[in-house]
Amino acid sequence: MTYLQGGDGLKRREFLATAGLAAAGLAACSKPAAEPKPQAPGAAARKTYEWKMATSWPPGFPVFQTGMEQFAARVKEMSGGRLSIRVYAGGELIPPLEVFDAISAGTVEMGHSASYYWAGKAPELQLFTTSPFGLTAQQFNAWFYHGGGLELMHEMYKPYNIITFPSCNTGVQMGGWFNRKIERIEDFNGLKMRIPGLGGRVVAKAGVNVVLMAAGELYTALERGTIDALEWVGPYHDLKLGFYRAAKYYYYPGWHEPGTMLELMVNLKAWESLPKDLQMIVEAAAAQSNLLGLAEFDAKNGEALNELVNTYKAQVLKFPDEVLKTLHGYAREVLEEEAAKSPGQRKVYDAFRAFAGRVEPWTRMSERAFMEAKGL
Ligand code: CA
Prior knowledge:
Layout: H1 7-29, H2 43-46, E1 49-55, H3 64-78, E2 83-88, H4 99-105, E3 110-113, H5 137-146, H6 149-157, E4 162-169, E5 176-178, E6 192-194, H7 197-204, E7 209-211, H8 218-224, E8 229-230, H9 235-241, E9 249-252, E10 261-267, H10 268-273, H11 276-310, E11 315-318, H12 321-339, H13 343-373
Parallel strand pairs: 1-2, 1-3, 6-7, 6-8, 9-11
Antiparallel strand pairs: 3-10, 4-10, 5-8, 5-9
C-alpha cells in the first residue's frame, strides 16, 4: 500500500510489472506506432487544496510545533503549491486536547498530537505513542514501517474517521526533576508528582500521588512545593522551562517514555479526497518529519545536557537498578490491566508485545552490545 514497505512481495510485484511492460513493449513494436495523444491535465491534478492543521502544542514550541511548520512548507513546495496547509498552535483554532474530535468531525483536515492524550475516549490507541519500558524510537520505527504497526494503527483509527502517520519522535525522555533523592522504591511513597498517562499509573503503584497540570503551571508548582517532582520531556525542553532552578535532582532514564511518537492526523474523508500523488507527498513529508524530529532531539538534548550539568550544576542521577526493576514489574501489571479492558486494547498490546519479542534479541546483539563495547 505504501512506498515505505519493501520485502519480497514488492520485488515480486516490481518484477511482474517490469515483465508486463516488456511484453507490452514487444507488442507495440509489432504494430505501427500510434500518434501520442496530448495529455490534458486531469481535474484532480489542477485542483488546489487549502487545509488547516490544529496541533496540541504551544505557539513556537520547539521541534513539535516548529517541525509541523516545516512539514507544511515542504508539502507546499513538493506539491507545487497544490496542497497548502495552515498550521495553528493549540488554542489558536482548536483547544489543544480537542484536536482528536475536531479532526474526527472534519472541522479541520489535519492535526498533530499524541494518541495517549485520547486515552479517556480511545484507550486502544495509547500504545501508539509510547509505553513504560516499551520500544525505543528505532524499534518503534521498525514496528511501524516493517512490523505491521502502521497498518494496525490505521485499522484502529478508522472507526474514528482518522488516519495517522508517525511524524516525530522524542527519543528516550528523562526520568524527571525531583526535590529529593530516589534511592529505594519506598522513596516514591507519598511523592506528589506530575507524570501523566501509563507512567503515572505505574508510579501510583509505588505510592506516588499523581498530579495532572498544564505545562504553563509546572515550574511554579515545583518551585512552590505544590508538587515534589515532575517529568516533562528531555534536557532541551526542560532547560527552556528552567526546572533546574526549582528542583535539585535530574533523574534518568525516562523509563516511562522510551520513544514518544507524535502523529500527523488526517480526517479520513479529506485524505481519501486527495489525489494519490498528494497522498504520497504527505506520507513522505511525515516520514521525513519523523526522522528530522528525532535528529533534532538527539542533537539539541546533548547540548542542553552539557549546559544543565556544567553551567547550572544540575545533579544528574540514574535511578538505582533495583528501583527500575520494581517499576518494570509494575509496568507489566499496568499494561496487562489495560489490555484486559477491551478487545481493541488487547489486540494492540498483543501485537506490540509480539513485535518487541522479535526485535529485542537483535537490539541486544547490535545497539546494546556495541554501546557496551564502546564503554557507553
Ligand atoms: Ca514526558
